[in-house]
Amino acid sequence: MNKVLGLNAFLRDSTKFILKYQHHLLTPTKQRHDDVWLVEFPKSGVTWLSFLLANINLRCSGIDRQVTFFNIHDFVPDVGQSRHIKDSALPFPGQRFIKSHAQYNPYYNKVIYIIRDPRDVMVSYYHFIDHLGYSSGSISDLIATKRNGIDAWCKHVNGWFKNVGATQQFNIIRFEDLKRDTSKVLHHIYRLLGYEINDEVLEFAIKHSSFEAMKAQEEYYRAGNPKFSVTSMCRKGVAGSYVESLSKDDIKFVTEKAGELMEKFGYRTVS
Fold first, then answer.
1. Cα–Cα nearest to 33, from 141, 130, 91, 109
2. Mind listing the pLDDT tens digit for each residue in 119-134?
3. Most buried of 111, 135, 225, 266 (most Cβ within 10 A)?
4. Apex CA 197: angle with CA 191 and CA 61, to 5°?
């Protein structure tokens, strides 16, 4: 009995150690208390939001520089690419905006969590990995997988929604709201940080981060990057386009798995 109890304790401690290690792998080597984390399940809109914020911060810093797919990580670095993140390159707002796809991480202090209708997420994610050559099946196959499908979406959203600590600053924005009234959501994000951004700056950022502008930037970047030529970050950017790509069975499967969560965030599960 003692051996069994000892083994169970060892396994619990090992699990805690591994989880803590995984959390540290997705935090900067030099953390800052005022870091702002932009967190999403993949293909929920964080690239677009990153362009918007980078353009705003450049404009407010008085720097005449264009945000591109080549330099975006100068302004909104991705912790999944490197933990060695320098201090912000911009005077305004001075703190770092950092992109992450991490599941719940207790070391993220200020979190803007971007959520999107999982039916659209599944479609966008499928096309993304299919273009990369990582998909070996249909979109229905992807949706059903534990690692990348609707179960993974539920785990990601639930992890943040249920586990975020009382001392963490946490705010959820919906991709659909950002799409419908971009200016309002951007005002909201900066008000959380204590800033008022004037309309001229917002109009500039929205124009230079539009779907058309980002698509043009993507094509420009693609021309000189053969690895980038097989994928697309800017496919459609449309809310509700899943109806064109998912079968009734796919939609039913998603809503059966994620319906309760979807309704919490205002996504209709009954047509």
1. 109
2. 999 999 999 888 777 7
3. 111
4. 115
Give the span between the Cα atoms of 122 and 215, in whole angstroms.
21
Checking phi first, is residue 63 left (phi over 0); if not, alpha (psi -120 to 50) or beta?
beta
- What is the pLDDT, as a whole number, of residue 112? 98
Per-residue CA distances from 180 to 41, 237, 239, 270 (Å): 20, 12, 9, 21
Strand spans (E) along the chain = 36-40, 97-100, 110-115, 169-174
Q: Bridge partners of 39?
A: 100, 113
Calculate mean pLDDT across residues 196-224: 94
* Pair of tokens at residue 228: 């980038």
- Compute the average pLDDT of residues 109-127: 96
Contact 53, 37 (CB under 8 A): no
DSSP character at residue 262: H
Q: What is the DSSP string of 192-251?
A: HTT----HHHHHHHHHHTSHHHHHHHHHHHHHT-TTGGG--S-S---TTGGGGT--HHHH
- Per-residue pLDDT for 7 more than 60? no
Answering whether pTM is above 0.85, one says yes
Asked whether the bond before 106 is cis by omega within 30 degrees of 0, the reply is no
Q: Decide if pLDDT at 9 tops 80.
A: no
**pLDDT at position 115, please?**
98
Nearest alpha carbon to residue 129 among 152, 103, 98, 163: 152
DSSP state of 187: H
Cα-Cα-Cα-Cα dihedral sign, residues 248, 264, 174, 138: negative
Q: In the chain, what percentage of residues exceed pLDDT 90?
A: 76
Residue-range domains of the chain with CATH: 25-117+155-231 (3.40.50.300)
Six-digit token pair at 162?
A: 């249920």
